[in-house]
């Protein structure tokens, strides 16, 4: 039987299953072994090579393409195939040599330039890869696959602005190509162009209105452009299509919180907890909403759950401490603040909360220590020095108190409070003229201090006319 008339070849069915591919490969290999000159049936050999490549058996494809090159050494196409196989075997240098050979035979072999670009990109040589794919595109300006390769390279290298331009070309060539539009949408998102993101997502929804991920992306775009109500509607559409799509449910709940629809937000977060019972985000938000509604005991229940899930969550201890403090349970509040600073001793706000409560409960030495820890972590906060000064006062260390207030002034000379506190100490020591200088400065910086003075020192009101600058 002549090899050109390979019997039964046209009867092979195109099945993607591995078993069918292997059966077909076996038959082709047997034919090549049993027929002299069978390699002259290039169509059959090319199909065999393709089957090996489809199934990832590049090492077995290589000898067959080598044989074709021996027979047809001036075929640029076979050199390109050899390069593709070697590239997939991670033999990049050898692959490049094959592509160069193809280009020596035909400098306008666009596939050689395109595949050389892929190999260079696999070698992390993006500059060379871009040069090659540009050459391919010069030869075939509207080749969809070449433009796609260029977009791949640009996206991989985070050159999103140029990638957008290429993806726009691809979208013009294939207007209903959802995959290209989604990639364009991703690039717009990464460049922060959320209006364009929304426009592209709208086009995608025109192609596939039942894709919940598209409604989710639309919701994100609308959120970023501050169209919060419309964003919530988009997340609702995603949830209509897939009710357990938790990313949309979470963002919807957060937006409801942001626009002040607290009860609706709680309901959305409770729905989220049905699917994600250990969601710290949901538990935190419900707790915080209850705080806003003045429901401190209810809030504590949710922060208890957060702490049960994550015992090292210092923020949960801190906020639960706020709740206990609001309820007058100072011992429990102080215990939570102490646990919080033990878990994360590098947060000045935690030390400040602890210090303020220690001061309010008469623990002045402990308060001073906590204020000094906060100051070490935040040396530009004058309010911390005010707190430390007041603790010094309660301990009878008045000179150190004054120095603390001076430190506050050094940080912010336009802050009225330290002047007022120094004036108060001079006044209590009956040093009226010195007190007047500091009160005058405090009143100049903050007129509300005048009322504070009248309430605190009613018998010294007569000095106000002298100290208030007109």
From TrEMBL:
Keywords: Repeat, TPR repeat. The keyword Repeat applies. It comes from the Bacteria. TPR repeats lie at residues 42-75, 76-109, 110-143, 212-245, 246-279, 280-313, 314-347, 348-381, 382-415, 416-449. Pfam families: TPR_1 (PF00515), TPR_11 (PF13414), TPR_16 (PF13432), TPR_19 (PF14559), TPR_8 (PF13181). Gene3D superfamilies: Tetratricopeptide repeat domain. InterPro entries: TPR-like_helical_dom_sf (IPR011990), TPR_rpt (IPR019734), Ycf3/AcsC/BcsC/TPR_MFPF (IPR051685). This is Tetratricopeptide repeat-containing protein.
């Amino acid at each position: 039987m002549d090899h050109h008339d390979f019997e039964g070849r046209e009867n092979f069915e195109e099945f993607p299953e591995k078993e069918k591919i292997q059966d077909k490969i076996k038959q082709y290999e047997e034919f090549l072994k049993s027929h002299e000159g069978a390699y002259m049936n290039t169509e059959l050999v090319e199909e065999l090579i393709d089957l090996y490549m489809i199934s990832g058996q590049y090492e077995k494809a290589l000898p067959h393409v080598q044989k074709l090159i021996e027979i047809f050494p001036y075929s640029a196409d076979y050199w390109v195939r050899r390069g593709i196989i070697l590239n997939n075997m991670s033999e990049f240098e050898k692959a490049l040599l094959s592509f160069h050979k193809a280009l020596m035979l035909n400098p306008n072999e666009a596939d050689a330039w395109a595949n050389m670009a892929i190999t260079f990109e696999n070698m992390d040589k993006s500059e060379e890869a871009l040069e090659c794919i540009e050459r391919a595109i010069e030869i075939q300006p509207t080749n969809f696959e070449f433009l796609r390769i260029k977009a791949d390279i640009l996206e991989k290298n985070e050159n999103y602005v140029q990638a957008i331009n290429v993806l726009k070309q691809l979208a013009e060539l294939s207007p209903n190509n959802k995959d290209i539009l989604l990639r364009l949408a991703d690039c717009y998102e990464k460049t922060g162009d959320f209006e364009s993101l929304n426009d592209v997502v709208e086009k995608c929804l025109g192609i596939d209105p039942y894709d919940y991920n598209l409604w989710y992306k639309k919701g994100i775009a609308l959120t970023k452009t501050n169209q919060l109500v419309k964003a919530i509607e988009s997340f609702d559409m995603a949830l209509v299509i897939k009710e357990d799509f938790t990313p949309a449910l979470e963002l919807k709940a957060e937006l409801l919180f942001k626009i002040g629809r607290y009860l609706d937000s709680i309901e959305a977060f409770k729905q989220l907890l049905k699917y994600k019972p250990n969601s710290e985000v949901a538990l935190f938000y419900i707790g915080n909403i209850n705080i806003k509604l003045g429901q401190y005991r209810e809030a504590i229940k949710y922060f208890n759950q957060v702490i049960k899930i994550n015992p090292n969550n210092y923020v949960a201890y801190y906020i639960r401490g706020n709740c206990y403090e609001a309820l007058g349970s100072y011992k429990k509040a102080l215990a939570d603040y102490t646990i919080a600073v033990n878990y994360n001793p590098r947060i000045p706000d935690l030390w400040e909360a602890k210090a303020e409560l220690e001061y309010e409960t008469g623990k002045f030495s402990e308060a001073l220590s906590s204020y000094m820890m906060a100051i070490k972590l935040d040396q530009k906060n004058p309010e911390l020095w005010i707190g430390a000064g007041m603790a010094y006062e309660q301990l009878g260390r008045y000179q150190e108190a004054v120095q603390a207030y001076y430190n506050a002034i050094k940080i912010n000379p336009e802050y009225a409070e330290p002047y007022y506190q120094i004036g108060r100490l001079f006044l209590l020591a009956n040093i009226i003229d010195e007190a007047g200088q500091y009160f005058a400065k405090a009143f100049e910086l903050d007129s509300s201090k005048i009322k504070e003075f009248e309430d605190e020192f009613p018998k010294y009101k007569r000095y106000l006319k002298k100290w208030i600058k007109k």
